[in-house]
Design goal:
The chain has one domain: Rossmann fold. It is 37% helix and 13% strand. Helix 4 links the parallel strand 2 and strand 3. Helix 2 runs parallel beside helix 3. The longest helix is centred in the N-terminal third of the chain and has 19 residues.
Length: 137
């Protein structure tokens, strides 16, 4: 979903980044542990804060990331490029992820699934075949 003005402001403030770094990332790290290399996918990357955390905290070698909102993708590319990241970022839809099966070692979602209409109606799950090995459900 493309963010309205209020959502855009809320997602692009320092408090949101702090929550991702100090609350969400540690919880996910505790649940799944570090990657120690490999390729990760971030669904709904926003301005790229989570993408950076996947590289830094989870120790992924590479990250592919996408967001439905082109404004957020532009911010993510700018943010990640300024930090020397080699992450690949594109405009995409979580209901149609254009990758082959067994591509990723980990798939991340920093709280975006509620934005997917199909998820709200319980008709959508992120395809488990994206993962090279079974992950957390």
């Amino acid at each position: 979903m493309r963010l309205n003005r209020l959502e855009f402001a809320l997602m692009n403030n320092p408090l949101r980044a702090a929550i991702q770094r100090h609350v969400e990332a540690p919880q996910l790290l505790k649940m799944g542990g570090p990657m120690a290399g490999g390729l990760a996918l971030e669904i709904g990357c926003g301005r790229g804060v989570g993408t950076g955390l996947i590289l830094e905290v989870f120790k992924a070698d590479r990250v592919d990331a996408f967001d439905l909102d082109p404004r957020m993708v532009a911010l993510a590319r700018k943010r990640l490029l300024s930090r020397g990241s080699s992450a690949r970022v594109w405009v995409g839809d979580a209901t149609a992820i254009p990758v082959a099966a067994d591509t990723y070692d980990a798939v991340f979602d920093f709280g975006i699934v509620h934005h997917i209409h199909e998820a709200r109606t319980r008709r959508h799950r992120i395809p488990p075949q994206l993962l090279a090995s079974p992950g957390l459900d």
